[in-house]
Design a protein that fits this description.
The complex is a heterodimer of chains A (588) and B (188).
Chain A (H helix, E strand, L loop, with lengths): L2 H6 E3 H11 L4 E4 L6 H8 L5 E4 L3 H15 L3 E5 L3 H5 L1 H10 L3 E7 L15 H5 L5 E4 L3 H16 L5 E7 H5 L1 E3 L19 H13 L3 E5 L1 H6 L1 H14 L3 E3 L14 E4 L6 H9 L2 E5 L5 H4 L10 E6 L13 E4 L2 H14 L6 H15 L15 H12 L4 E5 L3 H9 L8 E2 L10 H11 L4 E7 H6 L4 H6 L5 E6 L4 H10 L15 H8 L2 E5 L2 H13 L4 E6 L38
Parallel strand pairs in A: 2-3, 2-4, 4-5, 5-7, 6-7, 9-10, 9-12, 10-11, 12-13, 13-14, 15-16, 15-17, 17-18, 18-20, 19-20
Antiparallel strand pairs in A: 1-8
Helix pairs in contact in A: 2-3, 2-8, 4-6, 4-19, 10-15, 12-15, 13-16, 17-18, 17-24
Chain B lengths: L14 H4 L8 E10 L4 H11 L6 E8 L4 E10 L1 H12 L4 E6 L6 E12 L2 H13 L3 E6 L2 E8 L1 H11 L4 E6 L3 E4 L5
Antiparallel strand pairs in B: 1-3, 1-4, 2-3, 5-7, 5-8, 5-9, 6-7
Classes of the chains: A alpha/beta (588), B alpha+beta (188).
Keywords (chain A): Amino-acid biosynthesis, Branched-chain amino acid biosynthesis, Magnesium, Metal-binding, Thiamine pyrophosphate, Transferase
Pathway (chain A): Amino-acid biosynthesis; L-isoleucine biosynthesis; L-isoleucine from 2-oxobutanoate: step 1/4; Amino-acid biosynthesis; L-valine biosynthesis; L-valine from pyruvate: step 1/4
Protein name (chain A): Acetolactate synthase
């Protein structure tokens, strides 16, 4: 046997580590257990891959999501069989909904025990099939390396998403031949990235004529990469078309850009939603007409021609019928679009656009984010404004939990670059933000990483503060504490006759003491006058901080398009907030 | 290539040009799905239908290319035009799915199903059953003095018709394979 073939022979566990190295993996988020011990043994004997020990496998998946979203690289998770894998299900589903590339490696009971209800056995590929892009159970060590390379290919190609590779313990021990990535069979999975030129030319013609155009951009722009974001900026700025974005797409077009309308949707800005409703040309770039965006489907932007650029054909015509679908990668399509538009003389309908812009200025004058200030109580909006003012211009990353605070963060914090905003959009996973912030901090050790949280969401994965302290991730947990499940409370006020069923917490922990118990710093603030100093103290502290910001308990998050309403039928801060009845009350 | 051939990543959604996209009329479509023959593919396809609330009227699956590790899944489904388009797009993005063909709109196709029918009876009923079986070109594959097992192949409607006739003559059990279908004409 030649030396070369000898070198390719190794145990399954060694192959896993070798494959991760060959894929350029720097960090793995994981938790050991019986069925992954051989892999942990291999991790112990090397120094190239860093392992972050989490406190719960759900935390590992969200950390990997934060890592992936802030770097554009796939996040890698290592968990054991049974409960290790089932605990990862929420994170997998979250990543599937938000198109985040994750590679989860799970241990499994030995092949001869599969199907016998062995200790810590679960049908992991069965359980995770609907919440992964694809998954594999590897029974032959000779296939292991190739499967892992395929897993990385599938997770990062086309519309990104989570994948899982389930590896029985005996396969980890067994010897097999390692296949390097260059020799791995190229998977047939090669989604098309170039858009149809005829369709792109048709869109250019629409752009040249449009009187009331709007770009409606989503997470697909960010997934396509910084170059795609750059192209979007160039296109928007040279055409002068206004840009609005979904929650997932914030940062793709800079919030300081002259064509920025702000976020759209249920808690989006008045001017953004009105522009969507009244436009004559809607250009959807990498968004998917989510129900939080469209409101009532049959009243959605009734007078517009709709173009939709998406890499996933199943996103087209799923919810809203579009006139001009373009299947392809945002970056590639925008590049062709710009090139064709320029070669045809950079034409736009200047007269129509001027009128459109003055209309938009009128909508902006409504000042839809106005709120009643207070000298004695911290308004959550005020807290966001101060956080924005005091962290602006820094190397800043923001994660959030889910609820009112998430929407206030999206409304009041401004993002001028992509990959700086990590939030659970599709699945709406409370407990996402804290672990995600750790994942971001691991990828960007010197950056200022802030998790804007509500106290209820934050408690869902608070055990991960232990991870932050152990791995010296100086994440700042900015908790808007209203002692309520704020968004639930708001809906109960508006939709359920002010019957506040189980939407408040009576025995919240003392967050400052909790911080001390974890070995980090706690700061509590309850008066607007102290807020700035407290935020500065948080920023300047070299280590993790739990920031307990006591805010107005019954503030409503506005503007709001109640479910079942059209875009031009919003609740504004100036309206008397009234109960919502009828069909809308049945919607979520 | 037919304009309705859905390729992975293709932007050709020309089915909309031919049919009213907003129609609420339910259509029955026969889909041929060529998949990699690997564990879990069928579960992924079926899971898609149950998870998203689509209908399956009939489903057959078998390996059709041993060397190339390909299986062919034939699905008969019912839905509005928009739902049928969604089903095709959703099937097309499953990683181990190689091709999705809508045989109902891609041109003429032949559909066949095989059924085994057990008919118990004596005297005239037994003779009548045998006579009808001849008319329908069903074969007797098992016989006792008081029963027959008929084998018949045909379009599902033909099998329905035969089963209806056999019911008063003592039909007691029926096994059907579900539809297998191919486009007519030369290689696609």
């Amino acid at each position: 046997m030649s030396q070369q073939t000898n070198a390719a022979q190794m145990t399954g566990a060694k192959m896993v580590v070798q494959a991760l190295k060959d894929q350029g993996v720097e960090v793995v988020f994981g938790y050991p257990g019986g069925a992954v011990l051989p892999i942990y043994d291999e991790l112990f004997q090397q120094n190239e891959i860093r392992h972050i020990l989490v406190r719960h496998e759900q935390g590992a998946t969200h950390m990997a999501e934060g890592y992936a979203r802030s770097t554009g690289k796939p996040g890698v998770v290592l968990v054991t069989s049974g409960p290790g894998a089932t605990n990862a299900v929420t994170g997998l589903t979250d990543a599937l909904m938000d198109s985040i590339p994750l590679v989860v490696i799970s241990g499994q009971v030995p092949t001869f025990l599969i199907g016998t209800d062995g200790f810590q056995e679960a049908d992991t590929v069965g359980i995770t099939r609907p919440c992964t892009k694809n998954n594999w159970l590897v029974k032959d060590p000779d296939n292991l390396a190739e499967t892992i390379h395929q897993a990385f290919h599938v997770a990062t190609t086309g519309r990104p998403g989570p994948v899982l590779v389930d590896i029985p313990k005996d396969v980890q021990f067994a010897d097999g031949t390692y296949t390097p990535p260059q020799k791995a069979k190229v998977d047939h999975y090669q989604p098309r990235v170039k858009g149809d030129i005829a369709a792109i030319t048709a869109l250019v013609e629409l752009i040249e004529q449009a009187e009331r155009p709007v770009f409606y951009t989503g997470g697909g722009v960010i997934n396509s990469g910084p170059a795609a974001c750059q192209l979007l900026c160039e296109l928007a700025d040279s055409t002068g078309f206004p840009v609005t974005s979904t929650l997932m797409g914030l940062g793709a077009y800079p919030a300081s850009g002259k064509n920025w309308l702000g976020m759209l949707g249920m808690h989006g800005l008045y001017e953004a939603n009105m522009a969507m409703h009244d436009c004559d040309l809607m250009i959807n770039v990498g968004a998917r007409f989510d129900d939080r965006i469209t409101g009532r489907v049959n009243a959605f932007s009734p007078h517009s021609t709709k173009a939709h650029i998406d890499i996933d054909p199943s996103s087209v015509n799923k919810v809203i019928r579009v006139d001009l679908p373009i299947i392809g990668d945002v970056g590639h399509v925008l590049e062709d679009l710009l090139r064709i538009w320029k070669s045809r003389g950079r034409k736009t309908n200047k007269e129509g656009l001027a009128k459109w812009r003055s209309q938009i200025e009128e909508w902006k004058a409504v000042n839809c984010l106005a709120y009643k200030g207070s000298d004695s109580i911290i308004k959550p909006q005020y807290a966001m404004q101060r956080l924005e003012a005091l962290t602006k211009g820094r190397d800043r990353y923001i994660t959030t939990e889910v609820g009112q605070h998430q929407m206030w963060a999206a409304q009041f914090l401004h993002f001028d670059a992509p990959n700086r905003w990590m939030t659970s959009g599709g699945l709406g996973t409370m407990g996402y933000g804290l672990p995600a912030s750790i994942g971001v901090q691991v990828a960007h050790p010197d950056a200022l990483v802030i998790n804007v949280a509500g106290e209820a969401s934050w408690l869902m994965n608070m055990q991960e503060m232990g991870t932050a302290v152990q791995f010296r991730a100086p994440v700042k947990q900015f908790i808007l504490n209203n002692e309520r499940l704020g968004m639930v409370r708001q809906w109960q006020q508006l939709l359920h006759g002010e019957r506040y069923s189980h939407s408040w917490s009576e025995s919240l922990p003392d967050f400052v003491k909790l911080a001390e118990a974890f070995g980090c710093k706690g700061i509590k603030v309850d008066h607007p006058d102290q807020l700035d100093d407290a935020i500065m103290e948080m920023i300047n502290y070299d280590g993790p901080v739990i920031f307990d910001c006591l805010v107005e308990k019954h503030e409503n998050c506005l503007p709001m398009i109640p479910s079942g309403n059209a875009h031009n039928d919003m609740l504004l801060p100036s309206d008397d907030v009234r109960a919502i009845t009828g069909a809308g009350a049945a919607l979520v | 290539m037919s304009p309705l051939h859905i390729q992975q990543g293709s932007s050709k959604h020309s089915a909309y040009d031919l049919r009213d996209p907003n129609s609420e009329v339910l259509e029955r479509h026969t889909l041929a799905v060529i998949v990699a023959n690997e564990p879990g593919v069928l579960a992924r396809v079926i899971g898609l239908f149950s998870g998203r609330g689509y209908n399956i009227e009939s489903l057959t699956v078998a390996e059709t290319d041993h060397k190339g590790h390909r299986s062919r899944i034939t699905i008969v489904t019912v839905g509005t035009p928009q739902v049928i388009e969604q089903i095709k797009a959703q099937l097309g993005r499953i990683v181990p799915v190689h091709e999705v063909h809508d045989l109902t709109v891609e041109g003429a196709s032949v559909e066949r199903e095989l059924a085994l029918l057990k008919v118990e009876g004596k005297g005239d009923a037994r003779i009548e059953a045998l006579r009808l079986a001849e008319i329908f070109r069903a074969n007797v594959v098992d016989s006792t003095l008081e029963s027959f097992v008929f084998e018949m192949t045909g379009a599902p409607s033909k099998i329905d018709a035969f089963a209806d006739l056999m019911r008063p003559l003592g039909l007691c059990e029926i096994a059907r394979t579900g539809v297998a279908a191919l486009a007519r004409g030369g290689a696609a």
